[in-house]
Design a protein that fits this description.
Layout (H helix, E strand, L loop, with lengths): L3 H12 L4 E3 L6 E5 L3 H11 L8 E3 L6 H4 L5 H10 L4 E6 L6 H4 L4 E5 L4 H10 L3 E2 L14 H8 L5 E2 L12 E4 L7 E4 L5 H8 L4 H11 L24 E5 L1 H6 L5 E5 L1 H6 L7 E4 L4 H17 L4 E5 L8 H11 L2
Parallel strand pairs: 1-7, 3-5, 4-8, 10-13, 11-12, 11-13
Antiparallel strand pairs: 1-2, 2-6, 3-6, 4-5, 8-9
Helix pairs in contact: 1-6
Bound molecules: threonylcarbamoyladenylate (TXA) and magnesium ion.
Length: 330
Amino acid sequence: MVVAAQIKQAAELLAQGKLVAFPTETVYGLGADASSSEALAELYRVKGRPVSHPVIVHLADFSQVAEWAASVPESARLLAEKFWPGPMTLILPRAAHVLDQVTGGQNSVGLRIPGHALALELLLAFGGGVAAPSANRFGRLSPTTASAVHESLGADVSMILDGGPCQVGIESTIISLLDEREPAILRPGMISQQEVEAVIGPLKKSANIASAAFASTNREQREEPRVPGALASHYAPVTALVVLSAEQILQGDFGASAIIAFPQTCAALPHQESSVVVAAPLEPDAYARMLYEELRRLDGLKLACIVVEAVPAEDRWRGVHDRLTRASAR
Ligand code: TXA
Ligand code: MG
């Protein structure tokens, strides 16, 4: 249980330029004062991330958006009303004071109001914007429990707030509103394209190209080079991971491996002493919630590979599909 005294202490540490890991509904974040150049330098050092990559600024309240963005388009208001606090990040034109360390030197800033009580309490107590990438080393799986943060960053953070397992489980949907007439999804998440379009109308073509790539098995790197989450190999376990169809899984012999497959496939699998079989949830929400924690656990077994059954090519599965594709890229 996190108590008020811990929130207060965490906010004080942030104000002193220290790093505090905290839970959000998506994944745990590694927080730093987004207005402090020194705190951001420490954040990049610990994260092991190239300085040219931007970080998301976390806020407690919509009224703060205008402090970080040069302008707040109507579409941002509509999306905020519908999805914040929640698993959505908006890319907006940056306000003049926003540090290059936050924006990666770009003219934009990523903003998010997380849907987690503890995160909101911390943000309220701190008062300012908190820059927070996922609390993992660059390129690895995002942590969805406090103990996963501890394992990966341990001594390098001043404090880890424990809010239990994250309820969403994969990172936020990132929507660029830089060009108001052409909003685009830069990173799919559990808020789907259809849900976004229901609020602000059709998204930019490139987002639809991404969906064409989603429908096919195209694993080419996306066009947005400044979104590290869009690098082909990202969010990856150490163990090799392959995504295969149910048919391929049933025909294959994978030796000492882990197999994550839907229940029907699991039931049809011949028994293999050497493999660990995990029945995957049939709903995308439940699937996303377990994904990183399960991959982390399987990674720890040091098997030859992790075989994952392909998920349905449907809009609501896109976030999960995206993370599996990245985890399988080498
Ligand atoms: O759910 C989440 O978004 C989590 C939690 C902690 O909030 N955070 C997260 O942060 O996933 P990170 O740094 O691991 O990934 C954020 C992504 C990166 O791919 C980054 O490049 C992109 O957001 N991003 C941030 N600011 C941006 C900007 N101004 N323009 C384009 N992409 C931006
Ligand atoms: Mg990350």
